[in-house]
Amino acid sequence: MEVTQSLFNRRSIREFDSKPVNRQELEKLFEAVARTPSWANSQPWEVFVAQGETLERIRRSFQLKHADNASLSPEIPLPKKWTDEAKQRQRHLQPDMVRDCGDVIDRFKILNRSLFNAPVVVYICLDRILSEWSLFDIGAYSQSLMLVATQLGLASIPAMMLTVFPEVIRQELHIPDNLKIAIGIAIGYADESSAINRFVSSRRTVDETVRFFD
Ligand SMILES: Cc1cc2nc3c(=O)[nH]c(=O)nc-3n(C[C@H](O)[C@H](O)[C@H](O)COP(=O)(O)O)c2cc1C
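Above are the sequence and the flavin mononucleotide SMILES. Below is the predicted complex in structure-token form.
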């Protein structure tokens, strides 16, 4: 499958089947993803993979904390401001989801609080002293991961909600203090029977986005 096809086929999957992902498949994935470019080849990504009983403990702790209304504290702070245009586009998300999937908004919340029932969550971290340039590299690494996953027949979702109780993740995955948890990416096989997985998000057109000058 070509990269362009992976780009068109990838979309966020919010409900996973319990089927585990084979370790060799994951190693193949990370081997390809290591080819991601970075500033002066600094390769700032530090990757922690949660699966099996470790992931179940993280999931249970997250569910309990959500039930207690614990405050969400991702290590990359939540955004404080958006442009009006970005706000406008965000407002489309919920009605578009209902259009494609029916009334799944409660289910959306439950799944967001349950690590999407995924069998694998990849946490991508970087050293706290690094700048926004390295965060750019982490973004590129994340996209490579999702595209190669698509090519291997694996579903995925990048999610801030996977990172909201960092102390739980740090304890379970022995993440050292110098590292910041940037993003979590859930990986696995889509639950094909789940209505929420029917959602296909829209995009701005090329005309709306790109300015050409001759
Ligand atoms: C940095 C980042 C954080 C995200 N966090 C969440 C999240 O917490 N929960 C969620 O349901 N989706 C999350 N998403 C998925 C986006 O909602 C999704 O990528 C966007 O709506 C476009 O849809 P698509 O991925 O299906 O193309 C996140 C995406 C990114 C890139």
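The longest strand covers residues 179-188.
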